[in-house]
Amino acid sequence: SKHVIKNIPWTTAKNFTVEKGQQQIEELISTWDIHESWLHHSEFLEEEELKDSKRYHYRACWGLPTCRKPIPRATASVYFVIVISKLKPDTAPVEVFYRLESSRLIRRPEQCEFREKWLQDIIENKILCAERL
After folding, report:
1. Which of 9, 62, 85, 92 is least surrounded, with the fewest CB atoms within 10 Å of its CB?
2. DSSP labels, 69-132
């Protein structure tokens, strides 16, 4: 059986607000198969005006706090962009992209399943780097 990639119904351009965008990113994150020990917070970063679109930038910052180390040694960020096209009708859904802080690869939630291993790799690499210094 083919694996189903979980996605959410995204709001339309005309119903979009910065707060709604953040809520929907949280909704998307809640569909990801990530162990409950991972904690994150998300935030709106900026609005970017382009010729044929408006882009809204957000970040979700992830960590693995434990009882012995409540402040994680390193964190991993996932950057989201919500794009509102000026060329499409305002009844069209917004487009959503994300990328990991260590990568230039841009992913679409409907095309690519998020993997917890990506967060682990970023954090392991940061800790290794810090230990070398």
Report:
1. 9
2. -SS-S--EEEEEEEEEESSS-TTSBPEEEEEETT----B-TTTS---HHHHHHHHHHHHHHHHH
Contact criterion met (CB below 8 Å) for 123 and 75: yes
Radius of gyration of the chain (CA): 16
Q: Tell me the C-alpha distance between 111 and 3, whole Å.
A: 12
What would the pLDDT profile of 94-122 be if each residue is shown by its tens digit?
999 999 998 999 999 999 899 999 999 99
Q: Is 46 left (phi over 0), alpha (psi -120 to 50) or beta?
A: beta
Longest dimension (CA), the chain: 52
Residues, the chain: 133
At 129, list the tokens: 């780097």
Task: For the full predicted model, state whether its pTM sits above 0.85.
Answer: yes
Distance between CA atoms of residues 73 and 24, nearest Å? 28
Average model confidence (pLDDT) across the chain? 94
Q: Are 57 and 50 in contact (CB under 8 A)?
A: no
